[in-house]
Design a protein that fits this description.
Layout (H helix, E strand, L loop, with lengths): L5 E5 L5 E5 L24 E5 L9 H4 L7 E4 L2 E5 L3 E7 L5 E5 L3 E9 L7 H6 L15 H12 L3 H18 L2 E14 L2 E2 L15 E2 L6 E2 L6 E2 L3 E6 L14 H10 L4 E2 L9 E2 L2 E6 L5 E7 L3 E4 L4 E4 L2 H14 L5 H6 L1 E8 L1 H10 L2 E5 L2 E5 L2 H8 L5 E8 L7 H5 L9 H5 L3 H7 L20 H8 L7 E7 L3 E6 L14 E6 L3 H9 L5 E2 L13 E2 L2 E19 L9 H8 L4 H8 L4 E2 L24 H10 L8 E7 L3 H16 L3 E7 L1 H9 L5 E6 L7 H8 L5 E8 L1
Parallel strand pairs: 6-8, 14-27, 14-28, 32-33, 32-34
Antiparallel strand pairs: 1-2, 1-7, 3-7, 4-5, 5-6, 8-35, 9-28, 9-30, 9-31, 10-11, 12-13, 15-16, 17-18, 18-24, 19-20, 21-24, 22-23, 25-26, 26-27, 29-30, 30-34
Helix pairs in contact: 3-4, 3-20, 4-20, 15-17
């Protein structure tokens, strides 16, 4: 090999290793060049010392290192990207890294906080899969340190290199097998106007319209009719909960994007910058650890169950954030990881204005930046002159670049404290000193589904958004009605109501669509031909397949169960997946290949230094043999959510293939809420799921896919 793309590492034992980077290893190769390769005069080198240290790693995870782009040096990982070398390990070790000119070294050293690192089994019992810990319950301290380092880093070029390292490690350790990156399938009648796409938020149905000549059809549910003022969606599944603090899946978030409001939001197809919602203006301190949000005045939450309204102010915002963490659902990880709800508080406008006199803040919006020294400064900067309802101070333990994206997520829709606490409201308000001490509210809430406020919101949701839940019957239908109490209500919304018709049979849904009973329909890709070319009363069926989504579909191993606790077994099974057949037969080519936990083209996606797993049963058998695993001794249950025909087909294919390896394989399905509950508690062997990003940052893929909930006393990043 030429010196370009090669590095040499001199470690304590003076053993020299080299690894090929810059795209030299591709396809299904799974080897590391082990010949000693010293730099020549034509490839000048520099060297640096990466201070790390000692630690104890689980042998099953570290023994698999040595693949493309990775070198294990005793208790230190070295990951090679096209632009840098990332060295990660406990503080104390000092390996010397020699590399070609122009290749930077990024060193991540850490000290684990053993006392505060939760036990993986405990996280399972609490149902924290895909929350506080990744869905595979995979833990590796080096990987966790890289995740934390990337979260705290503010330099985008350094963050990108750390993300590349995590992509490479995710590809090697395979806690999840990435089946591919989704291409969106949207089926709807062309009488629907104004459709748009956003990677994290559903469309707002009050912003869509219909041709006034669209058909009028009775839908067969009570006296509801699909007319030009009603948007009907034929779909499958059921929201995990109507409580935003207890739902962490697309359906629940879709509902809350219609019936709730967050502090900030993305307007339609915006992805670069958020827009005001319940917050009309915001500013932060110099290091980004304190954010202040000026709350919109005149906002009311509407309670349709009792025909009552509740005014919203900064105290409700503080309560909403603390409540998400207190209930402790898996979704709460985004609050507990990046925010300090106890240190956050509600302020009056006067208190905030007084604070600004001695503590100027920084406001950034629409490409402009200003120093803010008064409340009037902030309002003028954002061009707002309407009523306000206090200021919410949000404290972060560490600066986090994409925090505003998190605040746009529907699970942080602001809920009325008075509605949820009832006759305890005044007492709780006084205990917290009107929101100055939100920690007092922990005594008025409890963890999990037994919490009374959850039981209330789960059954009788109340929000501030453009719609409200008017009627529903579990697993049958949900009816949303336009909210005349909405702060931005109009006399002529795009739709007066939205109706979700729930049916697990795709052909039944297609029949609803063909007759015009539904305006849009969710169907498996293999049914596309049944809805192409349809016409109804002069209108045409639209089958849209031109949007490549930042959505990954993947298998999840339970790495706390044998034999999936061995990374070599996971690699073997990654080679026992018929990727091309799945893409062609199951998804009708609506699945693009991807090999790690970041979608293309987000920062960190790379095809260099990775294994491009293909379907190779011989390789799978070889790796199982190397792992010393006898497949005939293991039973594997493959599970999927019922009603999802594509996932059923995938699991049936895998049952056939993995049975050929000798495993005893069964396939089972569960309804969506049960499915989520089982997977969050680690009650599975292998399951299949898709990941729609919570917010638009690469950390929202590598963190949820890889972070093992290790706590650290320190994580330090240095660059040389």
């Amino acid at each position: 090999m030429k010196a370009k793309g090669a590095i040499t590492l001199l470690v304590v034992f003076l053993v020299v290793f080299s690894v090929v980077a810059s795209g030299c290893i591709s396809g299904s190769e799974n080897t590391t060049t082990s010949t000693a390769e010293t730099p020549t005069q034509s490839s000048p080198t520099t060297s640096t010392q990466a201070e790390t240290g000692t630690s104890t790693q689980s042998g099953s995870q570290t023994s698999a290192l040595g693949g493309p782009g990775i070198i294990e040096m005793d208790k230190v990982y070295v990951i090679v990207t096209d632009k840098s070398v990332i060295v990660v390990g406990p503080k104390g070790e000092k390996p010397t890294v020699e590399l070609p000119e122009g290749k930077k070294v990024i060193t991540v050293s850490y000290v684990v906080d053993e006392a505060n690192t939760p036990d993986v089994k405990t996280l399972m019992e609490k149902g924290q899969g895909f929350g506080a810990i990744n869905p595979a319950f995979f833990r590796d301290e080096h990987v966790d340190a890289l995740v934390v380092a990337a979260r705290r880093e503010t330099d985008p070029t350094i963050r990108t290199e750390l993300f590349k390292a995590l992509y490479i490690l995710g590809n090697k350790f395979v806690p999840e097998v990435i089946l591919g990156q989704n291409i969106q399938l949207r089926v709807y009648w062309d009488w629907v106007k104004g459709r748009y796409y956003h990677p994290t938020l559903a469309e707002r149905y009050d912003l869509l319209t219909e041709d006034p000549n669209a058909p009028v059809v009775k839908i067969g549910i009570k006296d509801y009719t699909n007319d030009p003022e009603t948007y009907v969606i034929a779909t499958a599944g059921w929201p995990e909960s109507f409580d935003p603090a207890m739902t962490y899946e697309t359906f629940g978030w879709q509902i809350w994007h219609e019936i709730g409001d967050t502090l900030v939001t993305y307007w339609k197809e915006e992805t670069e910058e958020v827009s005001p919602d319940l917050a009309v203006a915001w500013a932060h301190n110099e290091d980004g650890t304190e954010w202040y949000f000026l709350i919109r005045g005149g906002v009311n939450a509407y309670d349709p169950w009792n025909d009552k309204t509740y005014p919203i102010d900064a105290t409700d915002v503080a309560f909403t954030f603390l409540r998400v963490e207190r209930l402790g659902h898996s979704v709460s990880w985004m609050v507990s990881s990046f925010m300090d709800v106890n240190a956050s508080q509600a302020l009056t406008e006067e208190e905030f204005d007084q604070y600004l006199k001695e503590h100027p803040l920084i406001a950034e919006y629409r490409g402009k930046t200003a120093e803010i020294k008064s409340l009037d400064d902030l309002k003028k900067f954002f061009g707002y002159d309407g009523p306000t309802a206090g200021v919410f101070k949000l404290v972060l333990p560490q600066p986090y670049t994409p925090v505003l994206g998190i605040l746009s997520d529907p699970f942080l829709s602001v809920v009325p404290m008075e509605y949820l606490l009832g006759d305890k409201y005044e007492e709780a308000l006084k205990a917290s000193d009107n929101g100055h001490n939100p920690g007092a509210w922990w005594n008025y809430l409890s963890e999990g589904k037994s919490d009374p406020t959850h039981q209330l919101m789960h059954n009788y949701p109340v929000g501030t958004g453009p719609f409200y839940v008017k009627d529903y019957q579990k697993d049958a239908y949900i009816v949303l009605e336009y909210n005349q109490h909405y702060w931005n209500a109009t006399a002529n919304p795009g739709h007066e109501r939205v109706i979700y018709i729930i049916n697990s049979d795709p052909m039944a849904r297609i029949n609803l669509y063909k007759t015009g009973t539904a305006d849009a329909v969710a169907i498996p890709p293999e049914k596309m031909d049944t809805v192409k070319g349809l016409e109804l009363k002069g209108f045409k069926s639209i089958v849209q397949t031109d949007i490549v989504e930042p959505v990954l579909t993947f298998l999840v191993f339970n790495t706390q169960r044998e034999p999936f606790n061995d990374p070599k077994v996971r690699e073997a099974l990654a080679y026992a997946v018929p990727y091309e057949q799945i893409a062609k037969v199951v998804y009708q080519e609506l699945l693009a290949r991807n090999w790690g936990p970041i979608p293309k083209p987000w920062p960190g996606y790379t095809e260099e230094g990775i294994t491009k797993y293909d379907y190779n049963l011989a390789k799978a058998k070889q790796l199982l043999n190397e792992a010393g695993v006898d497949p005939t001794k293991y039973k594997i249950e493959l599970i999927y959510n019922e009603g999802n025909a594509a996932r059923e087909k995938i699991m049936t294919l895998l049952q056939n293939v993995w049975s050929q390896l000798g495993f005893q394989v069964t396939v089972n399905s569960y309804n969506w809420p049960t499915y989520l509950d089982k997977t969050e508690h680690g009650e599975y062997d292998v399951y299949i799921v898709g990941w729609v990003p919570d917010y638009l940052d690469s950390d929202n893929w590598v963190g949820p896919f890889l972070y093992g909930a290790t706590e650290f006393e320190s994580v330090e990043v240095s660059v040389s």
